[in-house]
Amino acid sequence: DEIEAENTLNWFEEKNSNRALKYFGQYKGKNLIVVQLEAFQGFVLNRKLNGVEITPNLNKLAKNSLVFENYYYQTAWGGTSDAEFLSNVSLLPAREGSVYYQYAGNLYDSLAKELKGQGYFTSVMHANRPGFWNRTNMYKALGFDDYESEQNFNIDEIQGMGLSDKSFFIQAVEKMKGFNNPFYSFLITLSSHFPYKDYQNKIADIMDVGEFEGDTVGDYLKAVKYTDVAIGTFIEELKKSGLWDNSIVVFYGDHAAIPYEKKNKLAKLLYGKNDLSTFEWVTNQKVVMMIHFPDEKIKGVDKSTAGQMDLYPTLANLYGLEPKYMLGRDLLNNNEGFILTRDGNFADNNYVYLKAEDKLVEIKSGKEVDKSKHQDLFERYKTYTDKSNKMIEYDLLNYKTDDEK
Ligand code: GP9
User: Fold this and answer.
1) Positive or negative: CA dihedral 260, 261, 264, 266
2) Residues near 391 by Cβ (< 8 Å), separated by ≥ 6?
3) What pLDDT is stored for residue 404 in this prediction?
4) Residues 337-359, buried b or exposed e (16+ Cβ, 10 A)?
5) Of 52, 214, 307, 392, which has the fewest beta carbons less than 10 angstroms from its beta carbon?
6) Containing H/E element for 253?
7) Rounded Cα distance, 333 and 320, in Å
8) How large is the ipTM?
């Protein structure tokens, strides 16, 4: 009803009103390039296997970037599309199905729309069929001026599910060179998609995965290594074009890579043992995340608990935007980490709730704590879920706009 709608809108407005001013608008006018990496789980960064780095290019970039070590993915049934949504809108994915299919008709506040308000040209690129995840409709709803699907790329090299990341990145930079500045360019990679099979046998020897050869984990590491090489090319091309020095560049992973059934092999890779506890499993559901600033003035490692809903608020502040309906936090102005997922887990900087075991665990020690002493966390989880659901399911921004007419 009307009161519920007002309450929800007010809750968001209140939440997003107390903006601290650190870095506010500091990068206004700079281009923004956001790269969403298919299945880039956090543990690949700075990891070596048999002495060989899996992601040397990202590792090198990380040294001069702001890196979030505890950045959780919050995706649900909408997989890749949920990550796009969380990062560009800062609301949770749908409780069933996918926002991209079910709520493409909603009115959204989004990063692209807000930047457009500042005169940015906004573009999204992903070299797959435009119908996949209902992207054609949803990218319009998110306010992108331009959508470059596989139909706009020369499919000259295949790796994994479609156009190779290497060719994708090279062609993407060519396209960006022609864009009016400033621009926001959102790129979604494809090559490192499950099941990480190398049908063309091009990356079979890209690295020696030893005991993981022939297993999903081994195939995955090779796929990641391949994409990391492509990222190296991408960065070089951006530097050559002059765009690198004039853009904030973000790299983050979209969702899980290793399915639960393969957790024994993952345990081997991560801890050299044969199984993972629920606590270890849940606290590894993180993705790579780093922001590179053109002046390299902001860098280092942030260990607070963060997640994909936090990207939009963070970028909004840097670009001097003041959106009011975001669920996440500005990572540079608020260090009270809090994330939640659709499977019922949540975490702040100190505790993680494991839904499967109905246990609240202290992250530092891995020990269970008394839930009754932390009811505020459970309340927060309930409130966040409820407010996000209402925004989407009742299309509240549309309601608000109608109301104002
Ligand atoms: C498809 C790609 C994969 O275009 O984005 O989506 P996913 O299956 O990972 O959700």
Assistant:
1) negative
2) 8, 12, 91, 325, 397
3) 75
4) bbbbbbeebbbbeebbbbeeeee
5) 214
6) strand 247-253
7) 13
8) 0.96
Tokens of 343: 């499977």
Q: Are strands 48-49 and 52-53 parallel, antiparallel or unpaired?
A: antiparallel
Positions of the chain with pLDDT under 50: none
Over the range 14-44, which residues count as b (16 or more CB within 10 Å of their CB) and which as e?
ebbeeeeeebbebbeebbbbbbbbbbbbbbb
DSSP for 207-224, please give it.
S--GGGTTSHHHHHHHHH
- Dist. CA 324 → ligand 1 center (Å): 29
Q: Is 193 in the pocket of ligand 1 (CB under 6 A)?
A: yes
- Reported as a single tens digit per residue, the pLDDT across 116-148 is 999 999 999 999 999 999 999 999 999 999 999
314 assigned to active site:
no
User: Does ligand 1 have an atom closer than 6 angstroms to the CB of 132?
Assistant: yes
Largest CA distance in the chain: 65
CA atoms within 13 A on the CB side of 71: 30
234, HSE (Cβ side, Cα atoms, 13 Å): 28
Q: Is 322 annotated as a binding residue?
A: no
**Helices and strands (DSSP H and E) totals, the chain:** 13, 19
The total number of residues written for the chain in this structure: 405
pLDDT at residue 20, as a whole number: 67
317, 320, 286: which is closest to 304 by C-alpha? 286
At 346, list the tokens: 């949540």
